[in-house]
TrEMBL record:
Keywords for this protein: Cell membrane, Membrane, Transmembrane, Transmembrane helix
Domain NADH-Ubiquinone oxidoreductase (complex I) chain 5 N-terminal: 76-120
Lineage, opening ranks: Bacteria, Pseudomonadati, Pseudomonadota, Gammaproteobacteria, Alteromonadales
Occurrences of domain NADH:quinone oxidoreductase/Mrp antiporter transmembrane (ranges): 136-429
Subcellular location(s) per record: Cell membrane; Membrane
Keyword Transmembrane: yes
Family according to the record: Belongs to the CPA3 antiporters (TC 2.A.63) subunit D family.
Protein name: Cation:proton antiporter
Membrane topology note: Multi-pass membrane protein
Pfam families: Proton_antipo_M, Proton_antipo_N
InterPro entries: CPA3_Na-H_Antiporter_D (IPR050586), ND/Mrp_TM (IPR001750), Proton_antipo_N (IPR001516)
Chain segments annotated as transmembrane: 12-29, 36-55, 85-107, 119-146, 171-192, 213-231, 251-274, 286-304, 319-339, 383-405, 417-443, 463-482
PANTHER family according to UniProt: NA(+)_H(+) ANTIPORTER SUBUNIT D1, NADH DEHYDROGENASE
Organism: Thalassotalea eurytherma
């Protein structure tokens, strides 16, 4: 962080957006020299993470960081501002960009993928869009870069260039663009017509003078307009995008796209509606029921999928609605759980996708039914898979324990017992569709397989892939034993607090 001590704090916002763009340009220029191209990707990702760490440090110091890029109309501009929730998302995305880049180098070479320069360039463009979303100062800025993220990731989804990739890309682009134009844009315009502003403000911009029916309608438009949150029935783009290379799946499910969706919903709930106003809206409970249904139905669908990436995709649909539900509970501690789940789900799910890609590269297996005894050949990968699975389930000693704990306490505090039941049943379903995979790999053996195990029989994925999945599985441990820095950051979000809400609940005030 000393590297940036002489830089004006607000200028760090500009750097966080520009550095990945510069990296994308350099990747194009060095495309014919793979080693240099990939070194530039790693250096760029590391520089971005150091910038975000500096922004985090200034956030804890209470530094006011904002910039106005251009004023389009009076009171309507493109601007950026640092607030704790955005910093949390930026930390997750920038850190995982480093790890995903390491993984992608091993995967793209090990799988002999074509168009690798385009891949790394679009990846950098997507991360730049994510940084702009993280630090958006108003709804207009958020909307613009939400759309930029969609377009920058489309070439990644269609990377293979075959008919299946093109079909998946059409579904991806079609659903995300149609929902954002038909619903999200309408919600943004409605918000501006009611309030005369699109700025994010602590406590929200709506008050008792606004019609509750209209506000309830706006809430529904926002929830469905942010299609990247994958609330049913606008979730099909996510499984369809599984035709992309596994590093792209990791980008979609952990680093950028889906997290941009749930982050946007949580930010709008906190800074546009406000938690207190949200409690007064009739549609809040309706969307809660839809979120709960998404959690359970997508988990049930996941259980039916034999293709590993398809099962993980529907698992992601379910886990995203944990964050949506946490936001809609309009509880301080539930909002904290939703924010923390952005980080804990990221490290757990990216580990699982890393393992899925490693299995495909090393053993060419895509279906779970083919993975009997695979733990003998790929012990490191399957141990990492077990760790990621336990974290997603929410069992100690893994990171997912804490976010699910806060979400459950928040549901109890809001007196929403059906949400508590949903979270409990969902965790059982998580066990049912995730744990049998490593169990099958380690404790079942192929017919006739009697030979004692030895390291000489192992055939793991390329080293960069193993490094990446080892780091993210380690992160699942670290965030269980040392979640406090993230919790301290979350406690800086206006109206969101873990300690106060937990204390009240334990004293019987919840």
């Amino acid at each position: 962080m000393n590297l940036w001590q002489n830089v004006e704090p607000s200028q760090l916002i500009t750097l966080s957006i520009l550095v990945p763009l510069i990296g994308a340009l350099l990747v194009i220029l060095t495309g014919k020299i793979p080693n240099l191209r990939e070194a530039i990707t790693l250096v760029t990702a590391t520089i971005l993470f150091s910038i975000v760490l500096a922004i985090t440090d200034f956030t804890f110091q209470g530094e006011d960081m904002h910039i106005q890029v251009i004023e389009l109309f009076p009171g309507l501009d493109i601007s950026f501002e640092v607030e704790p929730l955005g910093v949390l998302f930026a930390l997750v995305a920038s850190f995982l960009w480093i790890i995903t880049s390491i993984y992608a180098i091993g995967y793209m070479r090990g799988h002999n993928e074509q168009n690798q320069t385009r891949f790394f360039c679009c990846f950098a463009l997507a991360i730049s869009s994510v940084m702009a979303i993280c630090f958006s100062g108003n709804l207009l800025t958020l909307f613009i870069f939400y759309e930029v993220l969609t377009f920058s990731t489309y070439p990644l989804v269609t990377h293979a260039g075959n008919d299946a990739a093109k079909k998946g890309g059409r579904i991806y682009l079609g659903i995300l663009l149609s929902t954002s134009i038909a619903f999200l844009l309408l919600a943004v315009l409605g918000t501006y017509s009611l309030t005369g502003t699109l700025d994010f403000r602590a406590g929200g911009i709506f008050d008792d003078s606004h019609n509750k029916v209209i506000l309830g309608g706006l809430l529904v438009l926002f929830c469905y307009g942010i299609g990247k949150a994958a609330i049913m029935p606008f979730h099909r783009w996510l499984p369809a995008a599984m035709v992309a290379p596994t590093p792209v799946s990791a980008l979609l499910h952990a680093v950028a796209v889906v997290k941009a969706g749930v982050f946007s919903i949580l930010k709008i709930v906190i800074y546009i509606f406000g938690l207190e106003e949200l409690k007064t809206l009739a549609t809040t409970d309706i969307m809660l029921y839809i979120g709960a249904a998404t959690i359970l139905l997508s988990s049930c669908i996941a259980m039916t999928k034999d293709n590993l990436k398809a099962r993980l995709a529907y698992s992601t649909v379910s886990q995203l609605s944990y964050i949506v539900v946490g936001a809609l509970l309009a509880s301080s501690v539930a909002s904290a759980g939703a924010a923390l789940h952005i980080a804990t789900h990221a490290v757990g799910k990216i580990t699982l996708f890393f393992c899925a890609g490693a299995i495909m590269v090393a053993s060419h297996k895509k279906n779970i039914s083919e993975m009997v005894g695979l733990g003998r050949k790929m012990p490191i990968t399957m141990v990492a898979f077990a760790i990621g699975a336990i974290s997603i389930i929410g069992l100690p000693p893994m990171a997912g324990t804490w976010s699910k704990w806060y979400l459950t306490i928040g549901a109890l505090e809001a007196d929403k017992l059906f949400i508590v039941a949903t979270l409990m049943v969902s965790s059982l379903l998580n066990i049912a569709y995730l744990l049998p995979i490593p169990i099958k790999a380690f404790f079942n053996t192929s017919s006739g397989e009697q030979k004692p195990w030895s390291w000489a029989d192992t055939k793991e994925a390329p080293l960069p892939m193993l490094i990446a999945l080892s780091v993210t599985s380690l992160a699942c441990f670290v965030l269980f034993f040392y979640p406090q820095p993230l919790i301290d950051l979350i406690n800086l979000i206006p109206g969101v607090s873990t300690e106060v809400e937990m204390t009240n609940n334990l004293n019987g005030d919840g």
